[in-house]
Amino acid sequence: MINTFGLKEDFPIFKKKVNGKNIVYLDSTATTQKPKQVLDAIVEYYEGANANVHRSVYKLADEATELYENSRSNVADFIGAKSNEIVFTRNTTESLNLLSFTMGESLGRGDRILITSMEHHSNILPWMRFEQRGVKLEYVDLDDEGHLDLEDLKSKLKRETKIVSVTHQSNVLGTINPIDEIGKIVKDNGSTFIIDAAQSVPHMPFHMREEYDFVAFSGHKMLGPMGIGVLYGKYHLLEEMPPFNRGGEMIKDVDFHTVIFEDPPIKFEAGTPNVEGAVGLSAAIDYLKRIGMADVRRHEKHLTSITLKALDGLENLKYYGPRNVEERGGVIAFNVRDATNIKKNLESKNVKVDQLYHSHDIATFLDERNVYVRSGHHCAEPLMRTLGLSGTARASYYVYNGEDDVDAFIKSLGEIDVQR
Ligand SMILES: Cc1ncc(COP(=O)(O)O)c(C=O)c1O
Question: What is the Cα–Cα distance from 109 to 217, expressed in whole angstroms?
Fold first, then answer.
């Protein structure tokens, strides 16, 4: 079988053998593997340009600052934004919390926030905290296939709705939400529009539009290192916001009782930043640019399409989210009924089987075949409640996966006693 891109060679982790066999990594929604180009860029930075940024006049510090700021420009260019609209954070979670604790502070009794039933906890909990001060948090409903119900969105959008925050692509259902259409509706209502792009910027072409006020994503989900994230914000909105953390780096002038803050984005980057992370993320972006994001999307669509076709043939397996691959990304959440093999497997280890079909049991069964899928609630418990589930198993694809991985996944599933 071909590996559509044949990129595994670039990823040292795929040299790893477990029980003498290759690993099949199907958990890129949680975090992606890192190519040598990214690892090398980080080592080169430490070996050739390490110094603290923005605060010294010597040459090495200049070099480090230049690398850090070039990384910011590269991120900006990748999503069609301007450099001064890119704030480096730790991850998507921190980007959304930054918004909650800065622009969110003006919210008060009677205001409303609208999110959706398919959000990751990191786009729920930063908004839930406002309920204590009388802000109403509402959720847009989903239809049976896991699309957002746009009529429900319109009906819940009120004059008092100050913030609408929506995931671009669900990390469970794979649903790709029509953010341009939603953005237009939201902006016509005068609300602030926030996009959780943790699962979209890494997987498809993404270009900034006037409707988007804020966009959050994580470096580690797009081949970059852990600990570096991005918050895009329209410059005038960033200017109006108070700082998040306070300390070194983010000031123009400090007197005993007064301070003048730096301009955005530095205003939001207190303390020594993650220069290594920014450099690694920039190398990851270069890697993705070389492939081309349209091809990344095309590749994942192909793998998803052949997977869904194979899963359709398994009678006791149910997967969630849209059937049409045009409407979904390469993440496939599923559950299995009547899996006698799993029961036998657990009993052979003296595990008492009272929840035969738990997603962890499926993931364990696949793990024993070196196929690594995630299981559980995927940090989306309100979605699980909406679906009436305790959890699902979940396979997800990225640029390094090929048809060989799909085959291994389907073959292993076939070894569960799923009736055909
Ligand atoms: C849609 C979505 N939003 C937010 C997050 C949180 O990302 P991070 O853990 O990098 O902050 C995730 C992580 O899986 C996600 O899938």
Answer: 30
